[in-house]
């Protein structure tokens, strides 16, 4: 509870729950890391963070894999999932993923949530029984229509989109009235242009709803415009129909799953079940009295849901449709859900806020697949390169979400070296006893100009980019030569860094945040090389100033890096003798902290501290 007596909602982040039918691969780890970067970032800002990961254990795919594993024996799916689910959980721990729960769809609490949703929607008329005819792909766990199928050979129909084999199904199913929710979905999305990010995927979602954004013809930078606008104007296809979807399978085909309430002959379709895990993770079902409060306390609605582009439709169309139906009154005929959410307000289940959608990793430029033998193993990569190097690589290369990235050890090596040269060597040079000795020799008051930047640099600097800082400094140079001192320049960059990282992280641009951090380190390294504090000719007081500015740079960089490389960031902080992330202290506070740190720094020259640092650095601790 905050001062207004309002409930402070936990920040809720989710990743997809993965199918435990095979070992995890780097794609799974990538999504986990993406979620973790935002979870750690929000936590460092003082938010109570809920972070859900887990496994999706029902369905034909798992049933088939489990039976194959046990030589055709039925009924051992749970046992199979217990073992494989653990590998995903362990992957998370190994990679330092800070998820607060690990949910499995086979759990009792999840079954209860699914049953609750089902009964509610059935009672309202959103679920009906029908004969379903169409195609099903076990690999994709997805129903397809005739128009989504192609025949590479006359007897092997496959999905056009994924190339996966499909089989003809003709069976009694329960259907969900997705068609009735199209208008409500469209209204939701046009009012929230930022709800699917990056924008290209937002446009894809509009396309799935038979609409397209109208780009203003004068339109400069439609992306920027779309972000700042409250609504997006769309061109809508009038004859577009969002078809109802099948949400169950006959038990004779699918035994392993949630049984349809009151119908032992049917099993809930795996995706209908899986998507509800996000609700389960937030404590659903919330009892009807005070359910709005319970919902909020549980973290619902999700703030950020990280997904791969392969499962956009499920998350952007199916889940919100289910939630809209849950929130609305009974279905009442054609186009009928005219006003979902206008019933009893405590029953409204809000829609997730942002769907962060990312592209895929390929391996040797190809989609990873067991049959091609090109599946990159995340555990092996972390063993070989260290946890934080793998995390760094994933966000440095894949942190802009849009483009597919190719996994390669050459690239990993390149980024390993980037960390080593830009951060590791910088730290070592600053921590070297010789430099410290010289710095101490020159100890005295920090030059006034620097002190000024330090006390009010971050707040008075209007610069929002590295480039504009350069300009600002160059202009100031005419009036004040001192400001052109390389240390002053670096200090300005350093003090502006946190604000810039904040901006990027608010925009969900993790890759840009990392780029900002690395840009400051580049300036830092250049400053050190230019000043050469190790050279005999450099005056001791300059060495001292350089040393202090470098320490402050490292402190701030460490705080900013924490979401990306938590292990290395902590080693740095320990090495520097600071414990917290980037402090928000005022001028005076900072200064005393700064002075204190100089003393702390002296303590770490002990070999033990360095040994500890390098052990962590190498991912051995
Ligand atoms: O789809 N590159 O599970 P899944 C990047 N159980 N990310 C990748 C990737 C790649 N090559 N391959 C997979 C399912 N991913 C469902 C989800 S959610 C209610 C149910 C990541 O094991 C990416 O996040 O097939 C993708 O969306 C997800 O793993 C699919 O994992």
From TrEMBL:
Major enzyme class: ligase
One Pfam short name: tRNA-synt_1g
GO cellular component: cytoplasm
Domain Methionyl-tRNA synthetase anticodon-binding: from-to ranges: 501-581
SUPFAM superfamilies documented for this protein: Anticodon-binding domain of a subclass of class I aminoacyl-tRNA synthetases, Nucleotidylyl transferase
EC number: 6.1.1.10
UniProt subcellular location: Cytoplasm
Protein's name in the database: methionine--tRNA ligase
